[in-house]
Write a structure and sequence with these properties.
heterodimer, A: mainly beta, 5-stranded antiparallel sheet, about 0% helix, about 60% strand, globular, B: mainly beta, 7-stranded mixed sheet, 4-stranded antiparallel sheet
Amino acid sequence: EDQVTQSPEALRLQEGESSSLNCSYTVSGLRGLFWYRQDPGKGPEFLFTLYSAGEEKEKERLKATLTKKESFLHITAPKPEDSATYLCAVAPQLTSGTYKYIFGTGTRLKVLA
Amino acid sequence: ETGVTQTPRHLVMGMTNKKSLKCEQHLGHNAMYWYKQSAKKPLELMFVYNFKEQTENNSVPSRFSPECPNSSHLFLHLHTLQPEDSALYLCASSQEGRGGYGYTFGSGTRLTVV
């Protein structure tokens, strides 16, 4: 069964304290892995797409990496405005003409000033 | 206007009411989705429309009824809901068929059933 597991469930960091969020997945063929940021009361906002093991993407203080079993979202020197829930999703290989993305439960990040 | 727009942003309805959620995308995408988001649960896929054809109904109760009149608009008709249906309902769109680019989400409708 296709599955996505994110850890930790919640993370509190001091401003400037770097850390990583984990997304482990099992999927029958990977079309893509996605990271989203979600602020309270809002829809998820797209951050990155990764397609193959070894790929890396960067945006400001965020860097996403991908292996065959997991992805990491590295946050370097975070600021309070980075506080949000970070969601990971995978797109399995297409079956029966249906596009389905499988989401994890997210990591709630709080960065303290 | 760009992106994915959902209306209303907030909705309070009684269990005997009928209401509709609206979603509009201005991105030229060919697939649209309804998701339910409840606290501490993964996003739950409800319906998928690919080129206006419904390709997925993820065992959703019949009190939720989707409608996709064209590739830019998606509705979710609600009737005789239960309190456990209270959640954030998210609409998303994507351009599928050429590698997959992930979703663009709307801001969601916060639904409260009383």
